[in-house]
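Protein in question quoted for reference:
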Amino acid sequence: MCGRIAVLIGSMVMMLPAHAFDFGAAFTDPLDHQRGIAKSRYQGDAVVTTEFEARYALDARWSGVTFAGVGRAADSSGDLHDAPNRWSGGIGARYLIARLLGLQVGVDVACGPEEWAFYIQMGNGWSF
């Protein structure tokens, strides 16, 4: 297991009116989920975002991660090409606390366009 690398890539494209769902904020603000960008910092009815994460297994329980993401938000899909890219990225560490369940805990430090952020995580944000 030592030295194994896993690469994860996720993306989201949303072009929904804000009133499409009663719980629309969860769907129309995918930049909320990009590490390094504050919740609801960039909003719009058309949003494109993607994030890349690479993990490196240091031993059976510890691994290091690095990640980067980019996203755009605009009022309509026609305005997306003019919207500026919002980049973020960072590093983190994971510890496997329950081998049988595959349960990990970890910390991430991320830098976005305007500020730094610190995250404590349990489980995995990536679902397959």
Residues 5-122 form a domain with the Porin fold (CATH 2.40.160.50). The helical segments are 25-28. Residues 15-31 have pLDDT under 50 and may be disordered. The chain has one helix and six strands.
